[in-house]
Amino acid sequence: MKTKIFAAYLPQFHQTKENDMFWGEGFTDWVNVKNAKPQYQGHIQPKVPQNKNYYDLTNVDVIRWQAELAAKYGVNGFNIYHYWFKDGVHTLYKPAEILLAHKDIKIQFFFSWDNCSWVRTWGKDAGNAWSPVSDKGKSGNSRLLELDYGNQEQWKKHFMYLLPFFKDERYLKINGKPIFAFMTSFEKETLVEMCEYWKKLAVENGLDGLYLISRHDEFYNKHLLDNQFFYQPPAAAWGKRMSIEGRLKKYFHIVLKQKGNVKYSYDYDFVWKRLLRRAEKERKNALILGGIVAFDDTPRRGSQARMICNSTPEKFKYYFKKLYRLCCENNKELLLLTAWNEWGEGAYLEPDEENGLAYLEALKSAVDDVNGV
């Protein structure tokens, strides 16, 4: 079967009252991207979008352009990050609402709820060059927005907000059920109760149910969740569950191949080979696999950045083709890719001044090769 490729989509690039409050008037992730500083000789920062396209995601034409570009180069849809906090506070919702309102935008999508509190990890304590302006004189990992699942009334409010998206014909469904992802684990009993209630509400509101998935970890609730997914690159590069051999290799790789003052640097080939080895082990399981384009979160974390070095479009095609073929051969319905537009983490398919459309062209070429086009 032809596995569907969904790229992670960050709805951050527009002004919000929360970002104005926490980081300064008009802040978006473009502030991070523009102010990034090289951390070693030859380190290419800042990254610049092609034609300096520092877009605003409240512009429907931008979202339409993204959808058309994705479709042209083999991306079937976006898994859009969703942010919902204590007492129903939610943010970064405008791009998804614009997409919902414009049925002519032909792109599939689903939500990945980043269900954790927001804390101040981008400030001056993290080594960011831009922090004296955007950090507003604050320090420490203070809590900005608190996650609290609340009670049944609040669960219903959240579900009813999501319902029009779930019913949209473009919203991805597996076995007729809208898919909804959780980025953190299922250790909280409250979350389990909430999901049971959501599944009940889904049927009551005319859906076949919900297809719930979570990031792969030890807290997997197989009685409630339908599947898990590997979130890359953490799962392959710096995840918790690694063998002693893997930990030693990772340690020596980081220490001996450090780039300048950067504490956490990884080699692109090393990470992709680990990723593919694990994918091979899981080929017969239902687990949803993931891949990476590139990664360098210098814009957000400065000298504390994690970066995967030596990425090229050619390498990306070589490794992604292997992963995509494995997924197709084993009838995996979905493959998740980091990312479409995570500019603050250096993980993006969108064209930039350095490589143009090369990563998108590499993706399309890999997909066409596997599908015999």
Characterize the main sheet: 10 strands, mixed
Number of helices: 13
According to CATH, the homologous superfamily is Glycosidases
- Which CATH architecture is right? Alpha-Beta Barrel
Helix content: 25-40%
Distance between the termini: 14 Å
| CATH fold name | TIM Barrel
Low-confidence stretches: 126-134, 252-257
The succession of helices and strands, N to C, reads EHHHEEHEEHEHEEHEEHHEHEEHEHEEEH
- What best-fitting shape do the alpha-carbon axes yield? globular
Summarize the structure.
The protein has 373 residues and is α/β, with parallel strands linked by helices.
Secondary structure: elements and pairs:
Elements: E1 4-9, H1 17-23, H2 29-35, H3 60-72, E2 77-84, E3 90-91, H4 94-101, E4 108-113, E5 118-119, H5 131-134, E6 143-145, H6 152-167, E7 173-174, E8 177-182, H7 189-204, E9 211-215, E10 227-229, H8 234-237, H9 244-256, E11 264-267, H10 268-281, E12 289-292, E13 295-296, H11 298-301, E14 306-309, H12 313-329, E15 334-338, E16 341-342, E17 347-348, H13 358-371
Parallel strand pairs: 1-2, 1-15, 2-4, 4-8, 8-9, 9-10, 11-14, 12-15
Antiparallel strand pairs: 2-3, 5-6, 7-8, 13-14, 16-17
